[in-house]
Amino acid sequence: MKIASFFLLPIIGFTVGIFFMGLSRRIMARIHWRYGPPLVQPLLDIIKLFHQRSISHGVIFEFGLLLSLAGGIVTLLFIPIGNICALNMSGGLLVVLYLMLLAPFGIALSGGEAANPNVSIGISRKMLLALSYEVPFLLALLAVMVEYNTISIVEIIELQRASSWGIVSLPLSGIALFLILPAMLGIRPFDMVEAPQEIASGPKVEYGGKFLALYTIERAFHEFIVIALFVNLFLGGANNPFTFFIKMLVIFTPFICISAVFPRFRIEQAIRFCWRLPTILALIGLIIASVWR
Amino acid sequence: MNKKIVAELELAFKDIEVNTPQDTRVEICAREEQILTVLGFLANKGYDHLALISCVDWIEEEEFELVYIITPYLQENKAYIEKGDVFLKTRIARENPEARTAIPIFANAEPYEREIHELFGVKFSGHPRLTHLLLERDYEIPPFRKDFDTRKYVKDVFDSIPVIPEEEE
Amino acid sequence: MDRKAIKKWLKDPEKMGNKYSLWAVYFCTGCGIIEVPPVITSRWDAERFGVIPVATPRQANLFLITGYVSVKTLRAIIRTYEQMREPKYTVGFGSCPINGGMYWDSYNTIKHLDKYIPIDGWIAGCMPRPEAVFIAVTHLWTLIDKGMANAYKKYRKQYKYYRRNQEMALGKLEWPPLYPISKDE
C-alpha cells in the first residue's frame, strides 16, 4: 500500500491539477458569455507540446526546469489526500514550507540562461510576489502549529476530526490564508508574473515544445499543492479522496469567478496588500491562539 | 478676420503677395530666399505651430512647390489672432531641387523634411539627418514624382523574382 | 470534428494534437488584424476550437498573415517565421498576400508572398469576415488529416531558393541562413 501510494499521489495530483486548469478556462469563458474549450483542453495542449521540436539554450536551462518540477512532485508526497499518505513525518509542515520554494527558484535558474529581458522582469516579479505572500502564510501556519501543538499534518487532521474544523477554531488565520490564496496560485488579480500583454508572458517566453509542457505540468502540481494544503489545515482533511476533491472544488470556484472579473495589480500594490490586511489578521490570530492555550 | 495679420505682413515685407480666399485662411506666395524671414515673423506674431510641410510636383512648369501650413496653437494666441491658418507657398526648380531647412525656427520640421527628401528628392541644406524614414531602398527616380512609372518598376523589381520550384523527386 | 474519437487519439496523437490545439502568434501584419480581435473574444469564440493567441513565436504553431506586406514587414515576418517551432502552419489572409491585392502596382509592397515563405492556404477577401478564420482552421484540419500541410518541410528542402529570393527582395540580410546551404551551383 505504501509503495502504491508513492505512484498514486503524483498521478492524482496531475489529473486534478489539469482538470482544475481546464475548469478555470471553461468557467471564465462562460462568465464572458461564450462557450469555452472542452474540459480536457490542457491535456490536448500538453500532448501537442510534447510532439513539437524544441530548442534548448543549454544545460542549466533544462536543469532548472527539472529542478522546479522535482520540487513540486516531492512536496506532493508529504501531503495526505484522504487516507492516502506517502511520507508521514513528524515535521511534515516545515518540510512542505521549504520545498514549496523550490519552484520559483528553479524557474529563476533556467530563466537566467535564456538571456531575455522579459524573463528577468518576470522572474523579479515572481520573487517579489513570493516574498510578499510568505509573511502572512508563515503567521497563519504558526497559529495552526501553536493551536494543535504539533507539526505533522496527519496529526493535525486527526485532531480536527476529533474536535472541530480549523476554520472554526482559528477563524482569523483561516481568513488570512484564504485572502492570500490567489497570490500563491498566480491567478488574477495577482497574475503580473505571466502577463502576456505587458512582458510577453514572463518566465515562459523562451520555452517551447517539451519545456513548455513540463512547465504547464509544474503549474498544475503547484495549484494542487496549495489548495490541498488549505483543505488539510483548515477544513479538516477528508476520509476518502472523493470528499477531499469536493472540498477543493468548493474552495477553487470562487477564485475563478473573481479572476474572470478583476484587472491586474501592479507588483507594489500586491506587496502592499499582502503585508497589510492578511498580515494583521494572521498576527491577531496568532496572538489569540497562543494566549488561549 | 485676419485683416490684422494681412496688414502687418504687407507692411513688413514688400515683394510678396497675400490673399485671403476664405475667412479663416491666408495664403502667402513668396520667393525661396524670403521663406525663413517670413516664418520667423509669423512665429513671433503668435503662429507657433508648424502643422505640415507638403510638396506639389508641377511637371509641366518644371517646378516643385513647397507649402508650409502654420497655425496658432496656444489658447491665448488663438484669442488674439481670432483663428486662422496661414499657407506659405514657394516654388523651387525641378532640376536638382534644393531648399533651406526650417529647423532653426520650428524644430518639428525635421520628419517632414526627411519625408519630402525621401519621396521627392528635394535636398534640405542644414538638416542634421536626411536618412530613410519610411522606405528602405534607393530609387533612381523618387517615387512620388509624376514621371515615376509604377507598373514598370513593379515588373522590373518584384515580378522578376522567380517562383520557388517544386521539389525534385 | 472528431475531437472525441479516442481511438484516433491513441493511434496517432501527434496529428490530433496538432489539429485541436493550434496556438496563433499575435503578429499584427497589416490592416487585416482588425478582424482578429472579434474572432478571439466573445462573439465569434475561437477558443472552443482550441485556437488561442500567444505572445511569442516560440510557443506558437499557427501564423496568420493578415493584410499587405511591405518590405520592412517582410523582414520581421521572416524572422518570426524562423523562430517558430516545427510543425508550423501559415495561412495567408486577404487578397494582398495572394497577388498584391489593392496595392498591385505599389513601389513598396510584396506582391506574391509565396516566393519568400511557404504558405499552406489562402483566404480571399478584402478583408474576409471573422467566420472565414474558422473556415481556414477547419480546412487546415482536413489538410493535416490527409498529410498535405507540409509547408514547413518544403521550407527545409528548398531553403536555398527561398534565401535567394529573400536576398533579391531585401538586400543584405542580417541573420545567417537557418539551414546550411551547400556551396554547389
- State the low-pLDDT regions of chain A, or none: none
Globally, the shape of chain C reads: globular
The parts of chain C where pLDDT drops under 50 for at least 5 residues are none
Ends apart, CA distance between termini of chain C: 47 Å
What number is the mean pLDDT of chain C? 88
The gross shape of chain A turns out to be globular
**Number of separate domains of chain C:** 1
Write the H/E string of chain A, N to C: HHHHHHHHHHHHHH
Sheet with the most strands: spatial strand order of chain C? 3-4-5
Helical residues, percent of chain A: over 70%
Describe the structure.
Chain A is built from 14 helices and no strands. Chain A is mainly α and 293 residues long. Chain A has one domain (2-292). The mean pLDDT of chain A is 89. Chain B is an alpha/beta fold and 169 residues long. In chain B, strand 6 (98-100), helix 4 (110-120) and strand 7 (123-125) form a beta-alpha-beta unit. The model of chain B has no long low-confidence stretch (mean pLDDT 84). Helices cover 39% and strands 10% of the residues of chain C. Chain C is α/β, with parallel strands linked by helices and 185 residues long. Chain C has a three-stranded parallel β-sheet with strand order 3-4-5. In chain C, helix 4 (71-83) links the parallel strand 3 and strand 4. Chain C contains eight helices and five strands. Chain C is globular and about 50 Å long. The B-C interface holds B 134-137, 139, 143, 148, 150-151, 153-154, 158-159, 161-165, 167 and C 71-72, 104-108, 110-112, 114-115, 118, 154, 157-158, 161-162, 165, 168-171.
Please summarize what this structure is.
Chain B has 169 residues and is of the alpha/beta class. Chain B has helices at 3-12, 35-44, 75-81, 110-120, 150-157; strands at 17-22, 25-29, 49-58, 63-71, 85-93, 98-100, 123-125. Chain C has one domain (13-170): Rossmann fold, CATH 3.40.50.
Overview features:
A: 293 residues, 14 helices, B: 169 residues, alpha/beta, Beta Polymerase, domain 2, 5 helices, 27% strand, elongated
What's the structural blueprint in terms of helices and strands?
The complex is a heterotrimer of chains A (293), B (169) and C (185).
Chain A: H1 2-31, H2 41-50, H3 59-76, H4 92-99, H5 102-114, H6 117-148, H7 153-162, H8 166-169, H9 171-185, H10 196-199, H11 210-234, H12 241-259, H13 267-274, H14 277-292
Chain B: H1 3-12, E1 17-22, E2 25-29, H2 35-44, E3 49-58, E4 63-71, H3 75-81, E5 85-93, E6 98-100, H4 110-120, E7 123-125, H5 150-157
Parallel strand pairs in B: 2-5, 6-7
Antiparallel strand pairs in B: 1-2, 3-4, 4-5
Chain C: H1 6-11, H2 13-20, E1 23-25, H3 36-40, E2 52-54, E3 62-66, H4 71-83, E4 89-93, H5 96-99, E5 121-123, H6 130-146, H7 151-157, H8 159-170
Parallel strand pairs in C: 1-2, 3-4, 4-5
Helix pairs in contact in C: 2-6
